[in-house]
Backbone:
């Protein structure tokens, strides 16, 4: 190979100083912009993950509270049907005792006295067991009539009582937890003065 050929090949080769810096590495501004975009994307993904975690934690807390409420309701109201049956039985015992005149109960002796005492003790024990399971009597006598707790059976003309006052209880009512198990059957006053407001301001104040 001639010297001229070698010289020509040497001249055709690119010299390092002839290579543009842009071809070797990107501009610093472009690299910085790419880094900023990457950081922004990571920050957005992090925010999305935090939001998901917070939502999941809130859902788990709501589920826990709902489960606790349902469990508490199950414990409180599981005996509702049985409690109603128990009330029917206690009503029968109460009626049996009420049929006996007070004089007969006081003068009873022997087997009759034992029978009366047995019925009385049984009724009280059944009431105790009902109370143990959250069954409570509903206040009625002398209270203002409440259609959610009382069932009006008749009206009683009584001007001495504010109108709408429970003046007679025919059958006691009971509640279990926050629910009415059985409304009280009552007689309500009619014709008396209107019930006074709960908080009536004195004119002289």
Residues:
């Amino acid at each position: 190979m001639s010297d001229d050929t070698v010289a020509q090949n040497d001249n055709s080769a690119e010299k390092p100083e002839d290579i543009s810096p842009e071809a070797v590495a990107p501009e610093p501004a472009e690299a910085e912009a790419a880094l900023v975009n990457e950081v922004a994307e990571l920050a957005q993904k992090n925010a999305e993950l935090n939001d998901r975690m917070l939502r999941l934690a809130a859902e788990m807390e709501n589920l826990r509270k709902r489960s606790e409420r349902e469990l508490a309701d199950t414990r409180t109201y599981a005996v509702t049907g049985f409690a109603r049956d128990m009330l029917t039985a206690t009503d029968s015992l109460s009626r049996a005792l009420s049929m006996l005149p007070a004089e007969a109960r006081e003068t009873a002796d022997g087997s009759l006295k034992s029978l009366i005492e047995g019925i009385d003790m049984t009724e009280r024990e059944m009431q105790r067991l009902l109370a143990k399971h959250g069954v409570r009597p509903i206040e009625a006598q002398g209270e203002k009539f409440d259609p959610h707790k009382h069932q009006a059976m008749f009206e009683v003309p009584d001007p001495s009582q504010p109108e709408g006052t429970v003046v007679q209880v025919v059958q006691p009512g009971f509640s279990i937890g926050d629910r009415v198990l059985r409304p009280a059957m009552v007689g309500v006053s009619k014709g008396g003065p209107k019930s006074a407001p709960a908080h009536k301001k004195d004119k002289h104040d």
About this structure: Residues 135-195 form a domain with the Nucleotide Exchange Factor Grpe; Chain A, domain 2 fold (CATH 2.30.22.10). The first helix runs from residue 3 to 12.
